[in-house]
Amino acid sequence: MLAGNSIGKEFTVTSFGESHGKCVGVVIDGCPAGVPLSEKDIQTELDRRIPPQPKIVSGRIEKDIVKLLSGVFNGFTTGAPISMTVENKEADSSDYEAIKDLPRPAHADYPARIKYGGFNDYRGGGRFSGRVTVALIMAGAVAKKLLSTFNVDVLAYTKAIGKVKMDKSLSPEEIRKLRYKAAVRCPDLTCAEAMEKAIVNARKEGDSLGGIIECIALNVPAGVGEPLFDALDADIAKMLLAVPAVKGVEFGAGFAAAELKGSENNDAYLMKNGKIVTRTNNAGGILGGLSSGMPIIVRVAVKPTSSIAKEQRTVNLAKMKDTTMKVTGRHDPCVVPKAVPVVESAVAIILADHMIRAGVIPKVLKERK
């Protein structure tokens, strides 16, 4: 049985590292041989993580230079485990010594202390920090490179920040072209400006915001998934809920389907250019735990950043007394922009695993001459 730090059955991803430890890393086992891959492929994805707007991000800016340690030879994956690390060079643990006995509201500080008997690394949230998602981006870069050889494209973007929501409908091509032109990763650039202002205002108030990220996966063939308990949507949801700060997941119409009649929610079939498609996509591209051949559409709800400058109530665990605290240090007023490439990577990892399991992706892409 896999431990809690690993996921996947054919394309297996194991994450390691803490927020203020020496590094964050990942090991991928089961990646097919023959995938063209370089450190540049990984670095391109890592460079997307931190938005280029200092007003909306933490003061901790890591360069995140990847070291590709194994599993690649002469520019191609070998079929052996792929291991990668990124060093933590900008960590400042001083702020956490003063509050090590004061569990921060909405953080994992208290339950982690109980589970690990106080031996857990509390600096910066340790293993429970958003910093560990760097490992997912590295693994996601490999998964996306693999998927691209089968024409599968995964695109995530910011759909809402707080109460500022993107209502404009854009094509996948427009989303791909425009999403990273905005610091908040929203392809509607007018809406993106309003989102950025909302984040800046929340920060001025010593507060934070959450939001919604939508992810679209294109060209996933029908029939991918392993019902009942390894259903494609179930595994995607599990992976996404493992991303720190994600508190909700929905596919297609999602919770709005509860208000529809069956005649409104059902996706009718039709023939288009010799291919079976549906007129609508309320199912979000997954039926009965299997891909339907339509675009997979999934959205995640991201909670507001827990570390805020406003005074909050807590308990002093050393004295077992009520107290108050203000969280100091470097924290994002909104983690949604940083989470966009993480969500994209998470979905890509599960798709890679399931497409290998379904036999759509072989264990060797092409024999080398």
Question: Could you walk me through the main structural features you see in this protein, from its secondary elements to its overall organization?
Answer:
The longest helix is centred in the C-terminal third of the chain and has 22 residues, at 336-357. The two termini are 38 Å apart. The protein has a five-stranded antiparallel sheet, covered by helices on one side. It has a five-stranded antiparallel sheet with strand order 9-8-10-16-11. The chain has a two-stranded antiparallel ribbon with strand order 5-6. It has 369 residues and is an alpha+beta fold. It contains nine helices and 18 strands. β14 (286-287) and β15 (290-291) form a beta hairpin. The model has no long low-confidence stretch (mean pLDDT 93). The chain has a single domain, classed as Chorismate synthase, AroC fold.
- The number of E-state strands comes to 18
Described by strand count, sense and barrel closure, the largest sheet is:
5 strands, antiparallel
CATH homologous group name = Chorismate synthase AroC
The CATH topology turns out to be Chorismate synthase, AroC fold
Helix and strand composition category: alpha+beta
* CATH class (first level) name: Alpha Beta
Radius of gyration: 21 Å
The helix content is 25-40%
Shape: globular
Instruction: Tell me what the CATH architecture is.
Output: 4-Layer Sandwich
Strand content: 15-25%
The first-to-last residue Cα distance is: 38 Å
- Order of strands, widest sheet: 1-2-3-7-4
Given the structure, what is the number of helices?
9
Helix-strand topology string: EEEHEEEEHHHEEHHEHEHEEEEEEEH
The whole-number mean of residue pLDDT values reads 93
Task: Give the domain tally.
Answer: 1
